[in-house]
Amino acid sequence: MLGPVLLAAARSDSIRRIVAAAPVTRPVVDRFIAGERLAESMTVVRSLAARGLEVTLDHLGEDITDPAEALRTRDAYLQLAGALKEQGLGVKAEMSVKLSAFGQALPGGHELALKNVTPVVEAAAEAGTTVTLDMEDHTTVDSTLAILRELRERFPQTGAVVQSYLFRTEDDCHALAGEGSRVRLVKGAYKEPATVAYQDKQEVDKAYVRCLKILMAGQGYPMIGSHDPRMVAIGQELAHRNGRKPADFEFQMLYGIREAEQQRLVAEGHRMRVYIPYGTDWYGYFMRRLAERPANLAFFLRALATRG
């Protein structure tokens, strides 16, 4: 029952101020966030790459209200692409973007987001890497997938995220399972109404498996975004059943969660990519991580109790 409360709190400015001001918050946030500055995140990238892990980097920020903020997001990602190119890390690192941070929710937002994200995708290609479009709440899906189609005309390696808890996602998976398409499948981390999304965890899990079957049977490149041991095992079985080699799909997990499992999958020869968020606007991301898993919330509460 706490999950919906935390997801609502993720968009509350008043709760944001309380959480950000709590002395215990910073050490806990550091478990899930690679740092507030680009240099800190690049140190984490190099460390993980040395252990055989790949990464995807997310400069935190969403739900902006000013076109100038969208330009700052664009510039932050251009700086990131430049750092990856300079340090030769493009082969190990890609970039994830939330189109709301590029102006998608502003007036004329679809065109604005496309205009702002295009130079980032261009810079990623020059750095030898690519971009994946994160999926946000259900009202953004059509716009996000339309922008994906436009970007893939020039940059077919551009990826997208789909969320199994949305009723529409099986159809989206069919549409995205073609040759060259890169799709990250996750369960979903936004508070959605019962009219568009499964509310029961078991139904979300069943939908995840149905979507994964579609992607694994297709001609694209599935990215299994899950910490659930059952989904990892099912992903391995479906890959085997569809004749996929380790280079034909990958697992993805969040920075700071199930690190031993990440290393286990690497040791077994799988591609394992770690989602690394960084930046000062960490609050919304942090609250969704608490909402997703009781273990995350328990970790935070234990820290609060210890500090008390």
UniProtKB/TrEMBL annotation:
The keyword Oxidoreductase applies. It catalyses: L-proline + a quinone = (S)-1-pyrroline-5-carboxylate + a quinol + H(+). FAD binds at M135, Q163, K187, G188, A189, K201, S226, H227. Binds 1 FAD per subunit. The keyword Protein biosynthesis does not apply. Pathway: Amino-acid degradation; L-proline degradation into L-glutamate; L-glutamate from L-proline: step 1/2. Substrate binds at K98, R288, R289. This is proline dehydrogenase. It comes from Streptomyces chattanoogensis.
